[in-house]
Structures are given as structure tokens and as C-alpha cells.
Amino acid sequence: MHERMVEARCLEERLIRMQRGGDGYFWIGGPGEEAFNVALGLLAKKGQGLDHDYLHLHYRSSATLLAMGADPVDALRQMKSVATDPYSGGRNFCGHYSKREWNVAPITSPIEVQYATAIGTAIAQKRAGGEGITIVQGGDAGTAEGDFASCLVWASRPGFELPMLIIVTNNGWGISTPGHEQHGEQRIADRGKAFGMRTATIDGNDAESAYRGLEEAMRYVRRERKPFLLEAYVSRLYGHSSSSGSNYVETEFDCVTEIEKKLVARHLRTSDECDSLRAEYEQFLLEAAKTVSLEPKPEPASVWEHVFTDRDIVGEGARKVPHDNRLWKAPACSFPTTKASKSGSAS
Amino acid sequence: MATMVQAVRLALHVGETKLGVTDIFGEDVGPPLGGVFTATQGLRTAWNSPLDERGIVGAAMGLAMAGQKPVAEIQFCDYAFNTIDLLKLAGNTLWSSNGDWNVPLVLMTPVGAGIHGSLYHSHSLDAQATRIPGWKIVMPSNPRDAYGLMLSAIQDPNPVMVLIPKALMRVKAAGPDEMIPGEPEDPRALGKMIDAPIGQREGWEPEWPETALEFVPIGAAKTVRRGEHVTVVTYGRMVGVAKRAADVLSREDIDVELIDLRSLHPYDWPAIAESVARTGRAVFVNEDTEITNFGEHLIRRCVEELWDSLRAPPILEAGKHLPGVGLAEPLEAATIPGLGSVTDAIRRCVRQPDRRVGNSRPRRDFAFTWTGEAPVGPFDAYERAFRHR
Ligand SMILES: Cc1ncc(C[n+]2csc(CCOP(=O)(O)OP(=O)(O)O)c2C)c(N)n1
Fold it and tell me: pLDDT higher for B186 or A82?
């Protein structure tokens, strides 16, 4: 975990430098969330189709991708918006990953829409059974959007609960608006309780708590095929994005420093080893950024590519599950609104 | 002889039995009701969603991403406006991911006026819909096209919107041409087979006729009527209105060519261009509000690309730019094109002097005042128009 966290941190710092040096237009990313996001990437059941986990992530998810095995150089390519950017072909901001091969849905800029699309993959997985689950993640301020409420409602319909791990990474901020000015609930996770959901709030800055918290939540969703709302406190180490300066925030808790302190104290790594690991990644990414900057920009005419497709993906990655949607019946309403003699004849 | 709503239901049945449709869902779409217009009665894969349009579009996208084939319904297009953000997302998913993900989903929704629906059951969606790239958009004008376009929408690997004119839901095929191959001719016989009984529906099962897999290709317009004086381009409910207008005008020796566009995107420009170049006159008719209207786009192309063949300025006959459609009949009639206004618009277009003949000057009594100068290019034209103010 430590190594992936260091790699992710070095990647974000390299991306910030690229943007500052004119090798990119905008930076947004997840430095400060590595402990939680690496754990998520390591625990996700990686692969394509219903038997694997679908990931509906947001723009702070680089560490998750790296933990799943993504090449950090590809993230540099997206920053540089070169034609070789495998996630968007130079079309989208950095940190906007997409990898169908691993069920990673395209990350998009509008806040919270991923909580709406996640409903669909979870419905398909509910029907399919098996072990695959849907994981959706976003920030705390965004939970004010209707799509978050949509997700809670759809995930918890009685008798058709969805196998969905609903994650809120709470860094305490919108862009500049503090969390306490935006919502009054004690804990965002508490919102799940009204829907009968299992919930937890964990310290996402501590690698061990993050890993254990995620492991438990995932185990529940995988086995019970029901939703879990997990809130994780995380840091925002370089501010919101390049538009707010992307400077290191001394007052925030740094999960990489913390894990290193623990590793050293437990004699699992020396601080020299930690330093040289970081230096290696820094050097590698510095060299890689130089190479990437020489790669070609997309051809202007390529804007016309991928507007429509001929590729038929129906049934792809999906086990054929014969089903009759009409067979699903919700349990009886607990507060009858019609007289018992008349119930069941609504039309 | 199916109505449009029965045609949609037949297509969805074919969809779920032969074309891989896994989910037909939306508000009140499943049993017991089967949709507020009954378009989804008796279907095996139909289910009720929460009352949440954004959730519906999001769920459809996610289902498509998971290899399913969803057909989602927005109960009335009037309630699709809070989903535009997600419609944009569905439209850009393939493009933004550089071809990595596509979302093969169908979104169907009833559109337009004509059912005394007042403010929130009379909206049109064509102007909005055609502003969301990445979607294919179709709108049938008769049961057979509704059936064939729905089949094509289902088979298409891209997001496709099927806009169904509300006022045509209960309208039967006008003749054998508009019938679905394989459906019983007797409308009552079809109703008995596939319409759910009123009231007690426990145990009711539809008896589906064997209808043919007859696709209406997306992007192909249909010339409904040949004529030589003027081209009328329209779609949906206005096709029937324009047909009647053409009948009225034929008594005045005005010979109308009528194109039913059927697909709004991609649209059949070759069909429009060929016809307009031949007649030299064009009227575009639709129900949506007139400012930033899809018909305006088509006029722009006519002016830019067919200038030399135009005999008169093209005309748009569309809904008035008002905040709503009023309930009282005179209010709706004053807002949405009808037989009278469409007939007038065509007549006005035809009576414009032919600008290709001699140096005839247009008469000043038309609403459209012409400066008499030919614009060199579109930018020039705008600039000139500005200077003339
Ligand atoms: C729908 C929408 N509204 C506004 C924005 C602009 N915006 C980008 S990030 C952001 C703050 C998000 O805060 P939060 O959800 O807590 O996530 P965080 O960035 O803190 O991880 C805002 C307002 C947006 N991208 N999308």
C-alpha cells in the first residue's frame, strides 16, 4: 500500500508541476486521499463485465487507478492532452479516467452524476447475482445534489436493494465553502440510515482504518447484495485544483507521512528507504513527463471521431440472465393507504 | 390496425423477445398501469421506477454500460428538462472516453401539444434534443413509422431518443400503408389481443401477433406527397396537419411536396436539399417555440447551400415564443401551428415573387423585408443585417 501511495503522490505532484510549467491547462486530483483510494483500488474486483466491480469515480481517483495497475505515464499524457492519452485522446482534463476493460466508467466533470449512472450497473448486477458490485464515489459538498438522493432511493427499494458501495470522501470543503456551512447533518453517512442502509464513517487518512473499513463494507455488499454508505474523512493537500493555486496545505493531515511514521516505528521500513522510494518515482515521472511532452497532439479532424459508433456491446460482459421483471414484487406497504378489501386493484 | 401507442408496444415486445431489450422502465411503466399512455402494457421486462427522471436517465446509462439494453421512458417530455445534464452525459460518453464506452439506450417520451395539456403537458423537445450532440433523435408521424423507428432505435448501439407525439398516441393508421406487417386488420381484434382489460388485471396476459422485423432506418426522411411548387418539411403531429393543408391548397392550384423528416438527427439533408432545389421554396413546420428552433437550422442550411435555387425566402411556421401553452382552446390555437396557420404559411411562401425571374422586387406587404442585396457569405449577411438597423 505504501508504495502505491507514494507513487500516487509523486504522480499528482508531477501533474501539478506540469500544469504550472505550461504542460497542461488545468490540474485537479487526489493528493491527500491516497490512503483511502489505494485501499479501494486494491480491494476492487478488477475486470470487465457484471462479475467484476463497476467503478463510478470522480476527479480525485488517480490513486485508485494506480492501485489497480494503471500506468502513471498515461495520466501524464492526459495532462499534456496528447493523442496518446488513452483515457480521452486529449479531450478531457487530467484525472478524468475511463477504462472499460476494468469497468471504470468515464470520470466526468459535473459533480454527482456518477451517483445516477451507478444505479444502472448495480441493477444489472443485482439481477445477475454473483460477486460483482457497483462502487460509486464523490465528495461531500456534492451530496447536496439530487443525484445523491436518487442513489439512496434507488439503492434501497424494499426487496430490490442494490449491491452498491456508496462512498463519500469528505474533505470538509466544496471549492471554498466549508462543509459546516453547507449541510446540517452530523454525519453524511447518517443519511443512509433513513433508507435502512448499513453505514459507517471512517478515518480515510489512516491506511489501516481505510483498508479495514472498505474491506468490511465491500464484504457486506458482495455477500448481502445490499447497499452500504461509507463516509471517509480525507485531506485535501493541495487545495481544490490549479485554480486555487495547488499549494501544499501544511495544516492538513498527510496520509503518506503518517504511514511512513508507522512503518518506521514498526521497523518495516527505514526513513531512508521511504525517501529513496519517493526519489525513484519522482525521477521516473520527471523523465516520463519529458518524453510525453514530445508526443503528438491530436489531429484536428479527430474531433469527428467517436460521435457515434457501430459497436454493438449489448450482452457483452454480461452473463445472460433470463428474467421477468414483472416477477419482482415489493414487500407489502407498512402503512396501508387503501382498505384491505380493495388493496391490489390499483389501476 | 394499430394506434401509435399500440405500435410502440408491439415494437417493444419485439424488442424484448428478439432484439435483446432487458429493461423497459420509467414512472408507472410496469404493472398495473403499463404507462400513462399504455405504451408498455403486458411487456415482460417493464417495471416501475421511482419518480425520478434523473435517476431514470442515469439508470438507463448504467444498464447500457453493463451490457443490458434499456428502454427508459420520461412520462412527458415536459419533465425531461431536469435531465438535460444527464442527456448531455449520455451523448458525450463515447466521445469523451475516446470511443471506450458507448451507451446503447433508448429514451422514449411523449411530446407536443394537441391534447389540451396546458403548460406542462404540451411541451416540445425537438429544439432542446437537437442541441444535444451524440444522440440520435427520431419522431414518428404514424403507427408504422413508430414501430419501425422504435425497432431501429433499439438496434442502434448509440443513445436514441424516440419522441412520440402525444396527440397521435390514439390515432390509427390512415390506411394500409401505415399498417404494421403482420398486425390484424381489425382494430378491435388487436385491442382484444394486446390491450389490458380495464380494472382487474391479475392473470391477464397479452396475446402478441407475429409482426415482421421491419425497420425504418434512422436518418431517412419520407416524401409523403410529391409536388412542384413548394417543399414543406415537418415531422410528428405536424405531418398530418401539413397533409391537410396541402389538400386545401391543391384546390388553389398550389402543389405541395411534403417531407416527413422522421429523424431529426441525423437528418436527411439530401432529401431536403433535392426537393428544395427543385421547388425553390421551403416551409419548415414544427410545434416548438420559434426562437432557436430546429427549423431555423434547416433554413440556415438552405440559405447557405441552396441560395441560387431559392425562389423565395424560406419560412418557419412554429410555436410562438411564449412561456407556455394555455389550456383554453383559443390560447393553444394562438400558440401552436394548426391547419390555418400552416396553410397560410405555405400560401405566403408560394405567393412570394420568384427572385430568380428578372429583377422582380418583393412586395413590401410581407412580414419578411428583403434588402435586395445578395449576401456574399453568412458572416457578411449578418454584418449587413446589423448595419441596416
Ligand atoms: C454540477 C456541478 N456544479 C458545480 C461544479 C463546479 N465544482 C467543481 S468541484 C466543486 C466542489 C466539489 O466539492 P465536493 O463534492 O466536496 O468534492 P471535492 O472536490 O471536495 O472532492 C464544484 C462546485 C461542477 N463541477 N459540477
Answer: A82
DSSP reduced 3-state for A177: coil
| A332-341 per-position pLDDT tens digit | 555 555 565 4
Can you give the length of chain A in residues?
A: 347
For residue B350, give the nearest of B231, B261, B269, B238 by alpha carbon.
B231
Three-state DSSP at A162 gives coil
Per DSSP, the three-state class of B259 is strand
Say if residue B78's pLDDT is above 80: yes
Average pLDDT in the B158-180 region?
95
Helix segments in A21-96, DSSP class H: 34-43, 62-68, 72-80
Which of A333-347, B60-74, B357-371 is the most confident on average? B60-74
Q: Is the pLDDT of residue A343 over 60?
A: no
> How confident is the model at residue A313, as a pLDDT?
83
The one-letter amino acid code at A197 reads M
B297 assigned to active site: no
Whether B378 shows a pLDDT value over 90: the answer reads no
Cα–Cα distance between A197 and A214 in angstroms, integer? 15
Tally of residues, chain B? 389
A89 interfacial to chain B (CB closer than 8 Å)? yes
Residue B149 CA to residue B8 CA, distance in Å, equals 9
Say yes or no: A155 contacts chain B, CB-CB below 8 A: no
| Mean pLDDT taken over chain B | 92
Encoded amino acid at A37, one letter: N
Amino acid at A222: R
Exposure string of B242-266, with b = 16+ CB inside 10 Å and e = fewer, is: bbebbebbeeeebbbbbbbbbbbbe
Question: Packing angle between helix A113-128 and helix B53-65, nearest 10 degrees?
Answer: 60
For residues A68 and B200, give the distance between their C-alpha atoms in angstroms, rounded to a whole number: 54
Identify whether the C-beta of residue B121 lies closer than 8 Å to the C-beta of residue B333.
no
Rounded to the nearest 10 degrees, the angle between the axes of helix A72-80 and helix A2-20 is: 20
Nearest neighbour of A347 by CB, restricted to B22, B32, B82: B32
Instruction: Give, in degrees to the nearest 5, the angle at Cα B37 between B334 and B86.
Output: 80
User: Of A161, A180, A155, nearest to A170 (Cα)?
Assistant: A180
Instruction: Choose which residue among A28, A62, A108, A111 to substitute to test ligand 1 binding: the one with the highest number of ligand atoms within 8 A of its C-beta.
Output: A111
Closest to A89 (Cα-Cα) out of B61, B104, B94, B62: B94
Instruction: Find the distance separating the first CA and the last CA of chain A, reported in whole Å.
Output: 56
Asked, as a colleague might, if the bond just before B32 is cis with ω within 30 of 0, I would say yes
Nearest to A139 by CA among A130, A131, A147: A147
How far apart CA B237 and CA B98 sit, in angstroms, is 37
A38 has pLDDT over 50: yes
**Axis crossing angle, helix A255-265 with helix A34-43, rounded to the nearest 10:** 80
Out of A10-14, A146-150, A330-334, B19-23, which region has the weakest mean confidence (pLDDT)?
A330-334
Q: Are strands B230-234 and B282-289 parallel, antiparallel or unpaired?
A: parallel
Task: Answer yes or no: are the C-beta atoms of B107 and B161 closer than 8 Å.
Answer: yes
Q: How many angstroms does the Cα of residue A137 sit away from the middle of ligand 1?
A: 13
Q: Residue A167: what are its φ and ψ, rounded to 5°? A: -110, 135
Grid look-up 489501516 returns: A208
What ipTM was assigned to the predicted interfaces of this complex?
A: 0.93
CA end-to-end span of chain B: 56
Query: CA torsion B261→B264→B267→B269, rounded to 10°?
Result: 60
Classify A215 in phi/psi space as left (phi over 0), alpha (psi -120 to 50) or beta. Answer: alpha
Whole-number Å distance, alpha carbon A111 to ligand 1 midpoint, is 5
From B71, B73, B29, select the one nearest B48 (Cα to Cα): B29
- CA proximity to B93, closest of B82, B84, B102, B104: B102
Q: Which of 14-33 (B) contact A at CB < 8 A? A: 20, 22-25, 30-33
Q: Which three cell numbers stand for residue A306?
A: 467517436
